[in-house]
């Protein structure tokens, strides 16, 4: 069992020094931990790769990181996550996916995120992004192998295969009752039940739910859906968002996936909040952002949530 994290600086230093065996053991430990979360952990219900929770805790929601270790450290310091988790406060740190690729410190970001889950298993939820997708939906360029090779030499492929096994255990959706739904990309436009979210990974590729969850984006100028310029997923209109939220009986979709100049943006008349935490190249957004708020508050739309968005 990995040792518990004490402070952010120690954790960052550890991520930069961890050897091949430490990294591989940590990856295997978290894959096993996630696979054991088959019914519930803490007071959250688990069905497939869907989490359902009551709005009884403080939430910290982090968007795409793409190897941005500096911003991840800043989020942990600003949010005071470690102090609060060590004190046993009721809070959950949600990662919306896209931990690696497009940043040379991608291995280190993975290490930090996995170590947080190992240290505070009931306070950390790891979600799946399109950069953690199955082989037939993997993003391109997918340069994580390059960074792993540079860091670990000939052992890189063992770590990479361990991470790929981990990807299949990551959560695809989180529903906070009467509040919001969290996922990486967009609305699964053909979903008819919670099972379509919970088992999107097993229904893929026969059904499109997982592809749309990982790849789709909101669009203001359309109704329904249309092909996405990304080459995977769909663009979806406000009518699709409203139907989906109505089915889940929640008010807001919180997602990542899409770069935003200010680190966040709001779409579909306040029904969609996008968070993008990475700063700088290759996206060139001037700010990154994350969300921190007490979910016991009744939140009607993303405009009301905006005051809880923390820009970096």
- How would you classify the helix and strand content by structural class? alpha/beta
What number is the mean pLDDT? 95
Number of helices in the DSSP assignment? 12
Q: Would you count the extended β strands for me?
A: 16
Topology (SSEs and partners):
Blueprint: H1 8-17, H2 20-36, E1 40-41, E2 44-47, E3 50-53, E4 58-62, H3 69-79, H4 81-86, E5 91-95, H5 106-119, E6 124-126, H6 144-152, H7 156-167, E7 173-176, E8 180-182, H8 194-198, H9 200-203, H10 209-215, E9 217-218, E10 225-227, E11 234-236, H11 238-248, E12 252-255, E13 264-267, E14 272-275, E15 289-294, H12 302-305, E16 309-311
Helix pairs in contact: 1-5, 2-5, 2-7, 6-7
């Amino acid at each position: 069992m990995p040792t518990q994290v004490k402070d952010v600086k120690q954790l960052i230093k550890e991520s930069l020094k961890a050897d091949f065996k430490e990294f591989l053991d940590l990856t295997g430990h978290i894959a096993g931990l996630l696979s054991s979360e088959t019914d519930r952990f803490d007071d959250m219900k688990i069905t497939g790769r869907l989490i359902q929770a009551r709005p009884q805790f403080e939430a910290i929601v982090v968007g795409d990181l793409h190897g941005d270790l500096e911003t991840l450290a800043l989020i942990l310091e600003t949010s005071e996550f470690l102090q609060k988790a060590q004190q046993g406060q009721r809070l959950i740190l949600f990662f919306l996916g896209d931990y690696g690729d497009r940043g040379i410190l991608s291995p280190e970001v993975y290490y930090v995120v996995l170590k947080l889950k190992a240290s505070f298993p009931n306070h950390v939820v790891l979600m799946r992004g399109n950069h953690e997708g199955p082989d037939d939906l993997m993003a391109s360029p997918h340069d994580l192998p390059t960074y792993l090779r540079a860091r670990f030499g000939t052992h890189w492929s063992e770590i990479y295969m361990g991470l790929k096994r981990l990807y299949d255990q990551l959560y695809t959706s989180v529903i906070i009752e009467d509040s919001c739904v969290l996922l990486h990309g967009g609305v699964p436009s053909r979903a008819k039940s919670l099972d379509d979210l919970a088992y999107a990974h097993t229904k893929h590729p026969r059904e499109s739910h997982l592809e749309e969850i990982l790849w789709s984006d909101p669009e203001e100028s359309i109704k329904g859906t249309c092909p996405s310029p990304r080459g995977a997923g769909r663009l979806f209109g406000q009518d699709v968002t409203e139907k989906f939220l109505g089915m889940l009986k929640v008010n807001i979709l919180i997602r990542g996936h899409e770069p935003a100049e200010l680190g966040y943006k709001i779409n579909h008349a306040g029904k969609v909040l996008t968070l993008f935490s990475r700063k700088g190249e290759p996206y060139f957004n001037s700010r990154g952002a994350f969300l921190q708020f007490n979910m016991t508050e009744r939140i009607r739309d993303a405009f009301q949530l905006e005051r809880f968005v923390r820009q970096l």
